[in-house]
C-alpha cells in the first residue's frame, strides 16, 4: 500500500521482488521527478538495489513514518492499510492470510502458510508472530509463493520486518503515546558510531493498556496489554566492503490479550450436548466470566549475525545466522464461563486449559549474488532446525487437580512421577494440600530439520539482441528436504457423564507413551519459478511469472496423535503491470493471479472422545483462487497525496470431504440413532452424519473484496512547521472463519475509519499527533473458533474505538 515516509539511513537487507510504491523506502533523485514527489524508490529487490518500477512482483511496503502515523503496533494493525492481508488470532496464535493462504491450525507444530522474517531471519512459531513492531525501517508484504530468493519457503507469501540499522552519525528519537483505556506506549532509539569502524543502535518499547473488557468474577482486565521489548545492533565495518552486524532482541508479555469470548452454544436445542458453562456467561460481549483469570505469559530472545562481503564489483556474499528461544504460556477456561466444572462437583469434565510452548530454533542462510549488465544471479543454501516441547493440560484450575486424580492414577498403576512429568510440574503444596496431576496432560516433542538450495537468475535479453531490448527472463528454483518427527505421550483420566462420581473403577486412565506415538516422515520437493518482463520505457513494466510453493507436512500437539499430514503445494500464475504517469505524479500497479493449491493443511476439534474433545488434522484435497490487486498513488497538488488499494480474492475449495464439528449427529453420546426407537435427527449417527463435500465453499479468513483509501493534506504554517491532516477508510466484505460458510462463524462486512491531525516543526525534530482509530466504534469479530471442550463457539474481537495523542522528538 503506498505510503509517504522516508526511512532511517543505514544498510538495507535483502528482500524479494517488490512492486512500485512512492516515498516509502530509500530514495534517490531520478530524471524528471518533481521534488515534491520525493523521487524514485530504491530497494534491494532481487538482492541488488533497483527502482521499484524495474522489478516484478506484488509487494506492499510501509515505511517507518507511515507505521507511526497509522498507530501500527502489531501485525493485526497492518490489515487496515494493506487490504490483501487478513489477520486473526485464537489460542495465542497469529492467523495471517494472504490471497486465501495462511495459518489454518490451532495446535502448535505446523508451519504457517505466510512466513514472517525479521531482517531475513525466519520466525517459525505462529505464537511468536504476535510480538509488537518497533524501530522499523519498513515492513514489506510479499504476495504469492516465495522460495527462490528466500531461505524458508512459503506457499502464501512473506511479511518482512526490516529494522532500523546503525548509522554513521549520532541520531535517535523518542515517542510517547497516551490514549483511552489508559493506553501508554513509550518508544525510543539511539544509534551512531562508537569508533570509525564500530556502529551501534539500541531501541526499546513498552506497551500498557487497560482491558477492553473485564472478568466480573476475578475483577481482572480482559484484552489488556503489558509488553516490554528491546533490540540492540552492533555493526563492525572491517573494511569498506566487509561488515558484520550482530543483533539481539528481547520480548516480554504478561497480560490477558487475545482472550476468547463466549458467542453461542455449538448445539443449540440439543439437550445431550448443552454447553458446560450455562448460567455463568458474561453479559457484555467484550467481558469474559471465568473462575480463573485468562492470561498470556511470553518471553522470547533472538540473536542474529549478518555477515556481508563485497568480493568485487559484481560478487557479494551474505550469511545470516539466527537463534531464537521462545517460551509462552496460555491460561483459559474452555467453558468461557464462571461455572466451575469437575467430575466430583457437577459431573462435568474440568475445562481449564494451560498450554505451554518451549521452542528453540536455529537457522543459517548463505547467499551469493553475482551482478553484471547481462545477469543478476542469486544462489543460496539454507539450514533450519527447530525443537518444540509444548505441554497441553486440562484440569480444574491452574495446577489445581482433583484429589481423586491421584487415587485413580494409583489404582491403574500410572506412576505419579510420570503423570507429574507429563503435566509439566511437581506435587506442589497449596495451603497444605498436594496439587494432583490434571485430568489431561500431553507433553509433546515436535521436531523439524530442513535443508534447501535455491537460486534465481534475471537475464537481460537485450544484451543478446537489440530486438530484445527491455526484456528480462527470470529463471529460479528451489530444492527442499525436510524431516519431521513427533511424539505425544499423555495421561487421560476418562470422563463419562453416565458414570457416577463415586464409582472410580469406571474411570479407566489412558497413557499413550512416547514410543507408542513416535512418528517420523521426510519430504522432498523441487519448486521452479519462471518469469518474463518487458520494460518498454522507464515508466512502464509488464510481467508474467509462474511459480510453485511447497510446505512440508507437520505434526500436532494432540494427546496420543501419530498424525503427520501431507505437504501443501501450490502452482501460481501472475500477470502484472506497473506504470508511472504525469511525470511520476501518479503510479499504478495491477497484479492478477490464479493458483491451484493441493493438500491444504486444516485443523479442527470435535466434541467427544476420552478428553472431551478430539482433534482433526488433515489435508483438504484441493483449492483454487482467482484475484487481482490494484494499488494507486497520486499527488494532484503539491500539498495533497492520495493513495488507494483494492483487492479481490475468489478462493474456494474444489474438493474437500470432511466432518462438520457443529453437526450434533457427528458427536457421540446419549442413545444412538435408530429409525424406530430413536428417530431424533440430532442423535449420534443420524442421517446426515459423517463427511460432507465442501466443494465451492470459500476458504477461511479471506474476504472477497477489500480496499483502503488514504489521504494526506499539508497546511504550511507561517510561524513554523506544518499541520498534516490524514485519513483512512478500510473495507472488508464478509469473512468466514471456517470452511462451512456459516454466518455465525463469520464477520459481517464492515468499514473502519481512522483519522489524525499531525504537527511537525520545520526541522522535523518535534512532532505531535492527535489520532483516532475505528472512529465509528464498529464491533466485529476477528476470528471465531468451535471450542469442543465447552461445546460452544468462541470469538475474538477487533479493537473498539481508540484515540489518543502522540508526542515525538528526533535528533
UniProtKB/TrEMBL annotation:
Subcellular location: Cell outer membrane
UniProt KW keywords: Cell outer membrane, Ion transport, Iron, Iron transport, Membrane, Receptor, TonB box, Transmembrane, Transmembrane beta strand, Transport
GO biological process: iron ion transport
Source species of the chain: Sphingomonas baiyangensis
Official protein name in the record: TonB-dependent receptor
InterPro entries referenced in this protein's UniProt entry, alphabetically: Beta-barrel_TonB, Beta-barrel_TonB_sf, Plug_dom, Plug_dom_sf, TonB-dep_rcpt-like
Domain (TonB-dependent receptor plug): residue spans on this chain: 52-157
Domain TonB-dependent receptor-like beta-barrel intervals: 282-775
Record's GO cellular component terms: cell outer membrane
Keyword Transcription regulation attributed: no
Lineage: Bacteria, Pseudomonadati, Pseudomonadota, Alphaproteobacteria, Sphingomonadales
Listed Pfam families: Plug, TonB_dep_Rec_b-barrel
Record's signal peptide: none
Family: Belongs to the TonB-dependent receptor family.
Segments crossing the lipid bilayer: none
Highest taxon, organism lineage: Bacteria
Topological category with respect to the lipid bilayer: Multi-pass membrane protein
PANTHER family: FERRICHROME IRON RECEPTOR-RELATED, TONB-DEPENDENT OUTER MEMBRANE RECEPTOR
Residue segments, region Disordered: 1-37
Amino acid at each position: 500500500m503506498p505510503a509517504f515516509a522516508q526511512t532511517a539511513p543505514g544498510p538495507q537487507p535483502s528482500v524479494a521482488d517488490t512492486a512500485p510504491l512512492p516515498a516509502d523506502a530509500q530514495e534517490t533523485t531520478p530524471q524528471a521527478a518533481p521534488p515534491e514527489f520525493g523521487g524514485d524508490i530504491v530497494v534491494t529487490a532481487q538482492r541488488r538495489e533497483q527502482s521499484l518500477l524495474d522489478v516484478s512482483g506484488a509487494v506492499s511496503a510501509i515505511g517507518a513514518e507511515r507505521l507511526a502515523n497509522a498507530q501500527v503496533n502489531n501485525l493485526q494493525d497492518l490489515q487496515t492499510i494493506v487490504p490483501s492481508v487478513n489477520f486473526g488470532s485464537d489460542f495465542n496464535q497469529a492467523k495471517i492470510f494472504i490471497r486465501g493462504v495462511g495459518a489454518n491450525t490451532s495446535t502448535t507444530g505446523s508451519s504457517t502458510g505466510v512466513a514472517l522474517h525479521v531482517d531475513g531471519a525466519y520466525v517459525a512459531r505462529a505464537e511468536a508472530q504476535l510480538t509488537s513492531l518497533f524501530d522499523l525501517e519498513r515492513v514489506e508484504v510479499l504476495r504469492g509463493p516465495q522460495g527462490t530468493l528466500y531461505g524458508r519457503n512459503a506457499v502464501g507469501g512473506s511479511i518482512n520486518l526490516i529494522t532500523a540499522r546503525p548509522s554513521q552519525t549520532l541520531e535517535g528519537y523518542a515517542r510517547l503515546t497516551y490514549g483511552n483505556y489508559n493506553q501508554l506506549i513509550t518508544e525510543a532509539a539511539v544509534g551512531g558510531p562508537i569508533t570509525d569502524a564500530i556502529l551501534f543502535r539500541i531501541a526499546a518499547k513498552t506497551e500498557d493498556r487497560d482491558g477492553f473488557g473485564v472478568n466480573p468474577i476475578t475483577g481482572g482486565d480482559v484484552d489488556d496489554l503489558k509488553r516490554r521489548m528491546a533490540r540492540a545492533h552492533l555493526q563492525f565495518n572491517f573494511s569498506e566492503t566487509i561488515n558484520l552486524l550482530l543483533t539481539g532482541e528481547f520480548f516480554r508479555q504478561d497480560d490477558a490479550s487475545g482472550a476468547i469470548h463466549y458467542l453461542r452454544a455449538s448445539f443449540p436445542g440439543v439437550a445431550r450436548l448443552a454447553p458446560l458453562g450455562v448460567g455463568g456467561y458474561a453479559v457484555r460481549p467484550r467481558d469474559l466470566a471465568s473462575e480463573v483469570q485468562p492470561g498470556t505469559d511470553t518471553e522470547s530472545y533472538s540473536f542474529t549475525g549478518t555477515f556481508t562481503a563485497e568480493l568485487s564489483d559484481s560478487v557479494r556474499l551474505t550469511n545470516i545466522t539466527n537463534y531464537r528461544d521462545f517460551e509462552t504460556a496460555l491460561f483459559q477456561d474452555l467453558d468461557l464461563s464462571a461455572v466451575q466444572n469437575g467430575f466430583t462437583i457437577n459431573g462435568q469434565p474440568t475445562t481449564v486449559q494451560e498450554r505451554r510452548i518451549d521452542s528453540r530454533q536455529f537457522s543459517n542462510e548463505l547467499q551469493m549474488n553475482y551482478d553484471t549488465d547481462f545477469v543478476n544471479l542469486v544462489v543460496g543454501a539454507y539450514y533450519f532446525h527447530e525443537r518444540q516441547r509444548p505441554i497441553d493440560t486440562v484440569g480444574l484450575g491452574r495446577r489445581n487437580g482433583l484429589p481423586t486424580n491421584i487415587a485413580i492414577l494409583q489404582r491403574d498403576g500410572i506412576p505419579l512421577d510420570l503423570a507429574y512429568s507429563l503435566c509439566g510440574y511437581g506435587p506442589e503444596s497449596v495451603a497444605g494440600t498436594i496439587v494432583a496431576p490434571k485430568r489431561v496432560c500431553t507433553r509433546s516433542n515436535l521436531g523439524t530439520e530442513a535443508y534447501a538450495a535455491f537460486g534465481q537468475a534475471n537475464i537481460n535479453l537485450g544484451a543478446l539482441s537489440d530486438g530484445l531490448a527491455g526484456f528480462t527472463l527470470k529463471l529460479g528454483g528451489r530444492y527442499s528436504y525436510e524431516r519431521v518427527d513427533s511424539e505425544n505421550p499423555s495421561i487421560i483420566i476418562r470422563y463419562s457423564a453416565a458414570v457416577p462420581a463415586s464409582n472410580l473403577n469406571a474411570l479407566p486412565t489412558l497413557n499413550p507413551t512416547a514410543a507408542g506415538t513416535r512418528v517420523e516422515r521426510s519430504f522432498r520437493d523441487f519448486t521452479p519459478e519462471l518469469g518474463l518482463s518487458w520494460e518498454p520505457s522507464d515508466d512502464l513494466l509488464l510481467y508474467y511469472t509462474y511459480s510453485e510453493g511447497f510446505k512440508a507436512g507437520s505434526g500436532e500437539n494432540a494427546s496420543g496423535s501419530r498424525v503427520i499430514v501431507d505437504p501443501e503445494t501450490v502452482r501460481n500464475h501472475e500477470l502484472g503491470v506497473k506504470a508511472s504517469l504525469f511525470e511520476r505524479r501518479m503510479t499504478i500497479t495491477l497484479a492478477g493471479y490464479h493458483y491451484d493449491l493441493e493438500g491444504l493443511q486444516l485443523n479442527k476439534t470435535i466434541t467427544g472422545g476420552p478428553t472431551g474433545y478430539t482433534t482433526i488434522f488433515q489435508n483438504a484435497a484441493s483449492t483454487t483462487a482467482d484475484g487481482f490487486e490494484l494499488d494507486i498513488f497520486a499527488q494532484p497538488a503539491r500539498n495533497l497525496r492520495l493513495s488507494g488499494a483494492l483487492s479481490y480474492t475468489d478462493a474456494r475449495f474444489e474438493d474437500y470431504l470432511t466432518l462438520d464439528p457443529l453437526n450434533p449427529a457427528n458427536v457421540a453420546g446419549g442413545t444412538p440413532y435408530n429409525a424406530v426407537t430413536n428417530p431424533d435427527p440430532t442423535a449420534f449417527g443420524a442421517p446426515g452424519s459423517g463427511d460432507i463435500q465442501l466443494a465451492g465453499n470459500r476458504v477461511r479468513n479471506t474476504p472477497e473484496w477489500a480496499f483502503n483509501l488514504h489521504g494526506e493534506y499539508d497546511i504550511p504554517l507561517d510561524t513554523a512547521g506544518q499541520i498534516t491532516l490524514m485519513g483512512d477508510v478500510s473495507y472488508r466484505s464478509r469473512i468466514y472463519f471456517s470452511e462451512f460458510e456459516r454466518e455465525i462463524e463469520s464477520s459481517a462486512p464492515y468499514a473502519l475509519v481512522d483519522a489524525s491531525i499531525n504537527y511537525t516543526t520545520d526541522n522535523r525534530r518535534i512532532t505531535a499527533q492527535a489520532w483516532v482509530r475505528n472512529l465509528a466504534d464498529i464491533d466485529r469479530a476477528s476470528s471465531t473458533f468451535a471450542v469442543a471442550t465447552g461445546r460452544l463457539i468462541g470469538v475474538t474481537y477487533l479493537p473498539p474505538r481508540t484515540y489518543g495523542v502522540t508526542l515525538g522528538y528526533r535528533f
